[in-house]
């Protein structure tokens, strides 16, 4: 989430196409939130709600793809549309206001997430049975597993 704050701070003062493409490339390079979100949902949701949680996870992104351009278009070029923003900085950088609003919103969401989202796994608890263990199995355990699960031929 903090990559948005950084990229939205670097995007408005771009004077060249190369700078704009570089900022967008940097933003895409740091985009890895979906895998983390799905892992967190898997750990905090009971198994019977996994299908519901994983089906809802794309909804905020869809809403953002609709609301973002509407908000950005409304706040773009504030020096010519709103008399209170008739400042030289908004004349020179017409997309500074929408990017600043979204960056502040993302920063607020980051702070709220850090405060209210708890740790998903208890440090003192044993690993759950449905997790895959990466420890090596002894020969005795391998032999027992092969008895239980016959090979398909």
UniProtKB/TrEMBL annotation:
InterPro entries: MFS_trans_sf
Keyword presence, Transport: yes
Its membrane topology: Multi-pass membrane protein
GO CC terms, sorted: membrane
Keyword entries, A-Z: Membrane, Transmembrane, Transmembrane helix, Transport
Organism superkingdom: Eukaryota
Cellular localization per UniProt: Membrane
Residues annotated as transmembrane: 95-118
UniProt-recorded name of the protein: Probable peptide/nitrate transporter At3g43790
Record organism: Branchiostoma floridae
């Amino acid at each position: 989430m903090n990559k948005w704050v950084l990229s939205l701070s670097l995007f408005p003062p771009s004077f060249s196409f190369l700078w704009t493409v570089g900022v967008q490339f940097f933003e895409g390079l740091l985009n890895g939130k979906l895998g983390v979100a799905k892992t967190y949902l898997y750990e905090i949701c009971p198994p019977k709600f996994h299908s519901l949680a994983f089906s809802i996870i794309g909804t905020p992104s869809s809403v953002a793809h609709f609301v973002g351009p509407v908000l950005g278009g409304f706040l773009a070029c504030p020096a010519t549309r709103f008399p209170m923003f008739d400042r030289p900085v908004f004349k020179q950088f017409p997309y500074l206001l929408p990017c600043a609003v979204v960056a502040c919103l993302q920063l607020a969401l980051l702070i709220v997430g850090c405060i209210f989202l708890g740790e998903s796994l208890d440090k003192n608890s044993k690993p759950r049975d449905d997790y895959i263990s990466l420890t090596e199995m002894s020969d005795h355990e391998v032999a027992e597993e092969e008895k239980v699960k016959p090979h398909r031929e």
